[in-house]
């Protein structure tokens, strides 16, 4: 059995955390070690999300953990929330994705743009894992540019009729509820975008899993088709309006991903150090060779920088000061360095590095999705470019 994870903390980042934040982190860390890591390799190979873990995750308060207790959520601050994402992704990006989508992309829009009635009806059931949600923004022809979406919602005397298709939707086939973003005006009217709560058992709604994924294999990713889907008047999120609404949700999820990526990097680094100390070649542990030491030094440096970035971003977010551009910088940097750490770990492990019994290759493959979703690395580069120059590369 693999030894328990001891943490990676070269700069005493722990001392920047409160007792409560450390306690949350340690609880999730122990749960991941005991319940997720022992089963994830098999789930990954079989291409199944470990859905048997959902009740335990709900019991631990991992869904919408930074939303208020009044709705059955844990009411944690954003640093504690980030630490949860870090530990979940130390286990697997697919499991962190599940929690990110449930909390930041399905519960958050109801919390931010929903009526009191919608919040009271859905949020407690989502916190308890009784209702699983998904978030339909991306379309087959509109990925990086969601403003172009062609899914339409037409108002009728009884409610709304939705038509369109959404692509690459995490939890799409397992969700009971989909947050669907659609235009309510003409196809050119970006300001008419609104969010809808669509129960997935509504007639005309179907979800088909994307097969053949070589990344995020322990996560369900689906295409949603909406064909004359009729929902009632109160399905619309009343406070949503314009592209800004889904983009605000993305900022919440990107924040969690910035932390999550650090978790994946820490898992790989830990594996690399342990392997480097025990694998003997040419009569010496490979960790004694300068080339491998350079690899490890680079990994530790980048992980430490990413950890500090997360804590400060979390503090800014708790003060209501974090900007979407600061979140972009953290998502972009941390996913990129985590991918580098996973790749270098895989290489340090030699042939063993391609096996599922080690973690590096699974994390590396997963991080390729994380690099692409929630705004590709390129899109975050351009968001920062716009922030720096005041000039948009998009319009
Ligand atoms: P643009 O004109 O820049 O913005 C429209 C309005 O929105 C505001 N805004 C934001 N607000 C909050 N957070 C953000 N991140 C925001 N970005 C922009 C902006 O200020 C403006 O407000 P206002 O008041 O002026 O109306 O819009 P644009 O059409 O030029 O697009 C900009 C761009 C390209 C950056 C945006 O479209 C983008 O981020 N594209 C990437 C798409 C993306 O990330 N999709 C993710 C889909 S969900 C997903 O991947 C889930 S994976 C889940 C998992 O498994 O973990
Ligand atoms: P495209 O937009 O077609 O981009 C292709 C390439 O062109 C990329 O390299 C991109 O960086 C580059 N590019 C695009 N525009 C520019 C530009 N202006 N300048 C320079 N380069 C550019 N979406 C959801 O709505 N909900 C989900 O739950 C969800 N889950 C996902 C789960 C997985 C596993 C994956 C892989 C994706 C998921 N997505 C989800 C979709 C994800 O958000 C999109 O894949 C992402 O936004 C990129 O869109 P695209 O794949 O269409 O790529």
Task: Characterise this structure.
- The protein is globular.
- The longest helix is centred in the middle third of the chain and has 35 residues, at 244-278.
- By secondary structure, the chain is of the alpha+beta class.
- The relative contact order is 0.12.
- The protein folds into 3 domains: 13-127, Butyryl-Coa Dehydrogenase, subunit A, domain 1; 133-235, Butyryl-CoA Dehydrogenase, subunit A, domain 2; 244-389, Butyryl-CoA Dehydrogenase, subunit A, domain 3 (Up-down Bundle).
- It contains 10 helices and 9 strands.
- It is 50% helix and 14% strand.
- The mean pLDDT is 97.
- Strand 8 (280-281) and strand 9 form a beta hairpin.
Please trace the helix and strand order, writing H or E for each element: HHHHHEEEEEEEHEEHHHH
Approximate strand percentage:
5-15%
The percentage helix is 40-55%
The overall pLDDT average reads 97
Side-by-side strand order of the widest sheet: 2-3-7-6
Helices, by number, come to: 10
Low-pLDDT sequence parts: none
| Morphology call | globular
Please identify the top-level CATH class of the largest domain.
Mainly Alpha
Task: Let me know the number of strands.
Answer: 9
CATH domain topology of the largest domain: Butyryl-CoA Dehydrogenase, subunit A, domain 3
Q: Any guess at the CATH architecture of the largest domain?
A: Up-down Bundle
Summarize the topology.
Blueprint: H1 19-46, H2 54-59, H3 78-91, H4 93-113, H5 116-127, E1 133-136, E2 152-155, E3 159-170, E4 177-183, E5 193-199, E6 205-209, E7 221-232, H6 244-278, E8 280-281, E9 284-285, H7 290-318, H8 324-348, H9 360-372, H10 377-389
Parallel strand pairs: 1-4
Antiparallel strand pairs: 2-3, 3-7, 4-5, 6-7, 8-9
3-thiaglutaryl-CoA is lined by residues 97, 100-101, 135, 137-138, 144-147, 170, 242-244, 247-248, 250-251, 253, 324, 373-375, 379, 383, 394-395.
């Amino acid at each position: 059995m693999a030894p328990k994870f001891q943490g990676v903390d070269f700069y005493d980042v722990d001392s920047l955390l409160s007792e409560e934040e450390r306690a949350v982190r340690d609880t999730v860390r122990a749960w991941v070690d005991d319940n997720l890591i022992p089963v994830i390799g098999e789930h990954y190979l079989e291409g199944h999300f470990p859905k048997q873990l959902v009740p335990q995750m709900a019991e631990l308060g991992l869904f919408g953990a930074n939303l208020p207790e009044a709705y059955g959520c844990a009411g944690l601050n954003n640093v504690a929330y980030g630490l949860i994402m870090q530990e979940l992704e130390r286990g697997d990006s697919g499991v962190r994705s599940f929690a990110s989508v449930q909390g930041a992309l399905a519960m958050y829009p109801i919390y931010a743009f929903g009526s009191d009635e919608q919040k009271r009806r859905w949020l407690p059931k989502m916190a308890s894992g009784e209702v699983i949600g998904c978030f339909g923004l991306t379309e087959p022809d509109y990925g990086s540019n969601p403003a172009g979406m062609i899914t339409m919602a037409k108002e009728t005397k009884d409610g709304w009729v939705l038509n369109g298709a959404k692509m690459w939707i995490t939890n799409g086939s397992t969700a009971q509820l989909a947050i669907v973003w659609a235009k309510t005006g003409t196809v050119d009217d970006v300001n008419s975008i609104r969010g809808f709560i669509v129960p997935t058992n509504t007639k005309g709604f179907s979800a088909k899993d994307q097969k053949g994924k070589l990344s995020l294999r322990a996560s369900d990713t689906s295409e949603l088709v909406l064909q004359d889907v009729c929902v009632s008047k109160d399905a619309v999120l009343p406070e949503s309006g314009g592209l800004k609404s889904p983009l605000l949700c993305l900022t919440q999820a990107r924040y969690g991903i910035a932390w999550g990526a650090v978790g994946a990097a820490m898992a790989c680094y830990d594996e690399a150090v342990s392997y480097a100390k025990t694998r003997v070649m040419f009569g010496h542990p490979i960790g004694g060779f300068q080339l491998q030491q350079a690899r490890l030094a680079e990994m530790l440096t980048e992980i430490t920088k990413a950890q500090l970035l997360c804590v400060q971003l979390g503090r800014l977010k708790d003060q209501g000061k974090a900007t979407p551009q600061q979140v972009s910088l953290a998502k972009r940097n941390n996913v990129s360095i985590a991918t580098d750490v996973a790749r270098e770990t895989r290489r340090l492990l030699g042939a063993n590095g391609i096996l599922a019994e080690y973690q590096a290759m699974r994390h590396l493959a997963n991080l390729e999705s994380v690099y692409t979703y929630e705004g590709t690395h390129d899109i975050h580069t351009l968001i920062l470019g716009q922030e720096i120059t005041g000039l948009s590369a998009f319009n």
